Protein 1
Amino acid sequence: AIVCGNTFILKPSEQDPLTPMRLAELFVEAGAPKGVLQVVHGTKPQVDRLLEDPAVRAISFVGSCGVGEYIYSKGTANLKRVQACVGAKNHMVIMPDASKAHVVNNLVGASVGAAGQRCMGISVAVFVGQAKDWVDEIKAGFENVRPGVWDDANAAYGPQTSKAAKDRILSLIASGKAQGATCLIDGSDFTVEGYEQGNWVGPTLFTDVTTEMDLYKEEIFGPVLACMFVDTLEEAIELINNSPYGNGTSLFTSSGAAARKFQHEIEVGQVGINVPIPVPLPFFSFTGWKGSFYGDQHTYGKQGIRFYTETKTITSRWFEDDIASGPNMSINLK
C-alpha cells in the first residue's frame, strides 16, 4: 500500500485488501469527518499520478523492495518527501546461556505466528555454539502448532492471505530442499478438514541452511524457519551485518556483556534483547536500516511527526519609537 497524506492506494494483487477497507470503515464509524481518510484502489498509473502531482507533498510506503525503490526515486525526483519501508530478513541469535524454555516458546511464536506474514517475524534462527543442540526442542515446538479457522481454539494461526502468497512460500520451500537444506518439518501439504481449498501452509523447519540459498536470501513471509549454526557471537553478528536488510533482530542470552556487544555492533535498526519481535512502542519510531528502508525520517514516533511537519521560523523586530508615534492604543497582556 502507498500512503500519500490521507490517501491509501491498494493494488488489486495486495495480499490483504480487506483489512485497510475495514480500518477505513471503523475510522468513519469512530466519528472522523468525511474525506479525512481516503482509500483508492489502483495500480501504477494511480501511484504515478500521486508521485507527480504537485499537490502531494509527502509519501509513505510499505511494500516490496523494487516498488519501494521506484517510489522513493520518482517521489524525491519530484521534490517530495518519501519514506519507504521495504524488505526484511530478521534473525534471532540464541546463545547457549539463554533460557531454553523461553527460546523455544518465543522462537516458535515469532516465526509462525500471524501465519509468518509480518515484516518483523523471525525467519532465521542463528544458534551459537552448543545452543545448536536445542533444535530438537524447536522441532517439537513446531510439531505442536498448526493453522486453523478463526473459531478453532486450538489453532495457532490462520491461512495465508492469498493463493499467490501461498504459492510463493511453497516455491521457496521447494527451492530450499533442491538447494541442499534439510527439511525437518514440511508444511507444504497441510490442509484443514472442511476447508481444503484454503491457503494453508503448515509450520516448516529447515536446518543446514546457507547464505547462498534462496530460502535465506528471500523474505519468505510465511511460517518457515531457517536454522543456522555458528561458533561465536562475533560470527553471528558478522552474518547478520552481511545481510542487505536491517529491519529487526533479537538476541537471547543471560549475559549482559553479550547483550551490550550485540546491541552496539549489530547493523540493524530495531534490536530486541530476550524479546523476539522488537516492534517499538508507538512513541518510538519504526527504524529499519539498510535495504529495509528508503528515506530520512522513519515512520511514527517523533520522526513520523517530523516527516509530516513543515517547520516555520519567524524573526521579528519592533521599534519603540514606531509604537509611540502610532495611534493611541491600550494593550492588556495576560
Protein 2
Amino acid sequence: MNNSQLAAFCKVVESESVTAAAALLFCVPSNITKKIKELESEFEVMLFTRDRNRLLLTPEGRTFYQKAKQALQLEEQGRQLFTGDQLRGTLHIGALDIALSHHLPTQIAAFRTQYRDIQLNITPGYSLDLEYQLLKGERDIIFSDGPIQHPLLQSRLAFPEELVLIGVESDPALLSQRDLYVFTHQCHYRHQIDRWISQHAVIPRAVLEIESYPVIFACVRAGLGFALVPKSLAESEHLAYSVQPERIHCDIYAIWRCAHASPLLQDFIQSIPTP
C-alpha cells in the first residue's frame, strides 16, 4: 500500500467516478482502476461494489476511506511542517549547571523569542555524561568543558570562564585550617581542583562533596571553609575572591556532532555570540 493508491481510492469515493478521479489526479482511468484493484487484492476485501457504471462503497470500503483520508492528511501536515521560511523542530540541549544558571538564560530567551515554533528540551548534566549523550544522539548540542578533541565532534568557545578561590586568603598555610567544598569526581572542575591542591601542597582540614553552589556559598559566608568556583558565580554572589596566578581556566564550549547538518541547529549555534 502506498499513498498514490490511497489518493486514487479517496478521489474515487469523493468524486463518485473513476473518470473524474483520473482527471483530478492527471492520469488515465485505467491507472485508477489498477490502484483500487491492488488495494483490494492486498486486503483481500471488496472496497466497492460494481453496479453497471457506478461504484458503490462497501461497508469495509467505508471504514477504510476514513483511515485512508486520515493517512493522507497526516502526510500533508508533515509536508507543511518544513515549508516556508519558519524553522520547526525540537532541539535537545544539555549543559553544565553554570552554563544554565548564568550564561545561557538570556541567549535561550532571545532564541525562543525569534523562533516560537521550535521546541526546546533543556537538561543539566556533568561533562562526561553530556558528551556521552551527545555521541548517542540524545542531545543535539551541549555546553560543556572544552575544547573537544574527538573525530565525531566539533566545538567552539561559547563563554570564557575560570575558577577563583573564595573563603580564605590564598596562603596554603591558612587553607589547611579550613574545609574544602567540591563537587564529585564526575565534575570536570573537581579534577582541576585536585590538581591545584596537589601543586600547592594544600591539605584541607576536610574535603566535603557538596553538589550545590548555594550550600557552598552559605558555608563559605559562615567562615567554615573555602572553595574554587567559577568566577562569574562568585561575582554574581558578591563574594570576595582571588584569581590564581596560573589562572585555572574552565571555559565553556558549544559542542555538537560534525555530521549534524540541521539548519535549526546551525541557527541556534549562530545565535550564541562569539566571545
Protein 3
Amino acid sequence: MSNFDEKSGVVPCLTPWGLWYQTVDEVVVEINVPEGTRSKAVKANFGITSLSVSVANINIQGTLYDKVIPDECLWSLEDRKLVRLVLVKSHRHAENCWKSLLKGQYEADPMTFDRMEKKLTLQRFQYQHPGFDFSNADISGNYSGGGPKFDAD
C-alpha cells in the first residue's frame, strides 16, 4: 500500500468472500479463507482481461472490468487466513476507476463508487503535485464518467 493509501485509507467494495479496492495503479482483492489454509490450495490465473481464483469453496472467475498486466499481478496467503491478489492496471494513472471487479460481478454501489472516484482523483493530484499532501483533502463535484466536472463560471 502506498504512503497516500496509508494516510487516506482505502475505499472497499464488500463482497460475500471479502472485499476489493483500488488505487490509480492497482486493484487489490482480499479473500477471507478458512484459518489454516495452505498456499497449495490456492489456484490463481491472471489474464489481460480475465481472472480465475479458486481456494477453499470460493471460486471467482470472469472478465475483468478493465485490462491488467498479468506478469505483474500476484497473490499471497497471509496468516493462512487471507488471500490477497494485487492486479496491476494496464492504464496506470489514467482516469480509470473500476465500477466492478469483474464485468457484471462484484459491482460497487453508487455511493462506494463515488468515494472511489474521489479518492483516485486525489491520488492523481498527489502524483502530479508530490510536494503537497492530499491524503486528508476532500473534493466535491459531480462524479460520473471518470471525474469531477468543473464549471467555467
